[in-house]
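TICKET: design request
STATUS: open
ATTACHED STRUCTURE:
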């Protein structure tokens, strides 16, 4: 009896130990599985946030690509460092005319391209001085404003050379520019001997105080020129009334380092016009006050009056012996007159002008805000995602 109880106790104890070992193994397994699950959820959260960040970056990049500064047109560059003109007795005459059409902010007016016309005349000094010579003229257009002109630099340095160069730039603003136009700044005739034997030189107007270089001025011309002595003439002018604005900064660089041979003739002129063109006043779109469309008065369609159809009068048939029997004459059957049926006149349907003012950038901004909110929720949410 005692041995049986001891055996039963041993068996029970062994069973309890086995159960405890099993419980511990399962607990460790669950803990390991839980750690793996937490790691997996963390990885998923990070991956989701990274994906949303990439979407946001892509959206912002696309938005930025839609707002890009318009490039400026290529500078005009002609009649510079012309070797043939630096031979004695040669002449050179060059002209540039630029017309820009821009908005009040200085951007190109898409309705009108800029136009550039250049003329180059070469030949002996005499004909060039008289307005002749062999000339070539070219006209082109630019999809961007043309703001820089460089011509007649380093030329006509032979003895008795003639140089005549002109630049005219007209900037048309559709509406008042952001910065009001002011007198064009000038830097000219620095390092040029315009007095002495021969005709004295003239440079007008005087240079703008504080402007110390060609590139810093609206017009920089005739610097380091006309130093050959016995000058036939040296006249450099910026046309009175020339104006410019920092909204559309321009630079004219011409006749610098030129006509340094003896007995040379130099004539250079620059003009800059800033014209404010009133933006076209749109024709007021009155909610189509459609002039009353009078429906055409349809002339009444009168059904043709049918002539009475008279039944043929039957000739009396005289019986050989009976009195003549006259058949009754049928009364004329008149077709009824149909009343005019007026076709209904459709009322004019006026098409209304489009009133869409949708901003293409609004959906993009909403998308970025929504993605940022989702990312914040995922980071702060205590909920375990499967």
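STATUS: resolved
RESOLUTION: sequence designed for all positions
ATTACHED SEQUENCE:
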């Amino acid at each position: 009896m005692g041995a049986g109880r001891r055996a039963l106790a041993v068996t029970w104890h062994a069973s309890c130990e086995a159960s405890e070992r099993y419980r511990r193994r399962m607990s460790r397994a669950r803990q390991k599985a839980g750690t793996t699950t937490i790691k997996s959820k963390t990885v998923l959260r990070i991956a989701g946030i990274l994906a949303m960040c990439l979407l946001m970056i892509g959206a912002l990049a696309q938005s930025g690509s839609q707002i890009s500064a318009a490039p400026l047109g290529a500078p005009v560059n002609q009649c510079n460092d012309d070797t043939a003109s630096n031979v004695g007795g040669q002449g050179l005459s060059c002209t540039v005319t630029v017309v820009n059409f821009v908005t009040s902010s200085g951007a190109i007016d898409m309705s009108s391209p800029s136009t550039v016309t250049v003329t180059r005349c070469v030949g002996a000094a005499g004909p060039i001085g008289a307005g002749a010579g062999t000339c070539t003229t070219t006209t082109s257009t630019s999809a961007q404003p043309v703001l820089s002109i460089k011509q007649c630099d380093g030329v006509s340095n032979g003895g008795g050379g003639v140089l005549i160069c002109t630049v005219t730039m007209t900037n048309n603003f559709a509406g008042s520019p952001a910065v009001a136009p002011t007198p064009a700044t000038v830097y000219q005739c620095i390092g040029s001997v315009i007095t002495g034997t021969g005709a004295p030189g003239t440079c007008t107007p005087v240079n703008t105080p504080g402007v110390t270089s060609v590139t810093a001025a609206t017009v920089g011309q005739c610097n380091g020129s006309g130093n050959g002595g016995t000058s036939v003439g040296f006249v450099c002018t910026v046309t009175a009334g020339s104006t410019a604005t920092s909204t559309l900064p321009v630079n004219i660089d011409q006749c610098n380092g030129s006509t340094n041979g003896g007995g040379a003739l130099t004539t250079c002129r620059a003009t800059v016009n800033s014209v404010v063109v009133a933006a076209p006043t749109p024709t007021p779109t009155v909610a189509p006050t459609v002039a009353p469309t009078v429906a055409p008065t349809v002339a009444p369609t009168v059904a043709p009056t049918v002539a009475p159809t008279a039944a043929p009068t039957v000739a009396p048939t005289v019986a050989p012996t009976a009195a003549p029997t006259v058949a009754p004459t049928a009364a004329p059957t008149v077709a009824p007159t149909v009343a005019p049926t007026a076709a209904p006149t459709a009322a004019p349907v006026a098409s209304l002008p489009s009133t869409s003012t949708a901003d293409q950038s609004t959906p993009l901004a909403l998308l970025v805000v929504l993605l940022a909110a989702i990312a914040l929720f995922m980071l702060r949410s205590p909920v375990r995602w499967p």
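CLOSING REMARK: The helical segments are 2-65, 125-129, 361-380. Residues 7 and 327 are 149 Å apart (CA to CA).
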